[in-house]
Amino acid sequence: MKRTTFLRFCAFLLLFSLPQAVRAFTQVDTVLVVKSERMLYLKSNGEILRRYPVALGPVPRGHKQQEGDERTPEGRYILDYKNSESRFYKSIRVSYPNQRDRLRALELGVNPGGNIMIHGQPEGAEKDAQLFNWTDGCIAVSNEHMDEIWQLITVGTPIEILP
Prior knowledge:
Blueprint: H1 3-17, H2 20-23, E1 30-34, E2 39-44, E3 47-53, E4 75-83, E5 91-94, H3 99-108, E6 117-119, E7 139-140, H4 143-152, E8 158-162
Parallel strand pairs: 1-8, 6-7
Antiparallel strand pairs: 1-2, 2-3, 4-5, 4-8, 5-6
């Protein structure tokens, strides 16, 4: 087999064996979470590449004010750490609280909380866990979706969380 024929064959196999976003060889440059839609979007240059249903905390409306309020923060953050050993399969940390969140918490005299993650499901979770809001303010996806997100997101990617 000629080298060019072999390379075309390899490209063909690669093209049809990877998720659509990876096939396009496009870098995800933004993650968008729309809480009211319960959706997470991976975007590149303003275009939506992939979308995933999410579960949030039991109190999904409103911005996180303090530790324990079971709300998901709203605003602009950075995905700043990946944990492949998470008790929720895999996790990617959201840089909450930012300076604005800390100042608001200081004014209210409360702890802003932290450890907000995009994460998968805990071991033994029911398949229908994504049908209701069950986290402590995190953004949960299925483990299958977490694997895709994990591959497509790099540390330092901005995330915007909207109401």
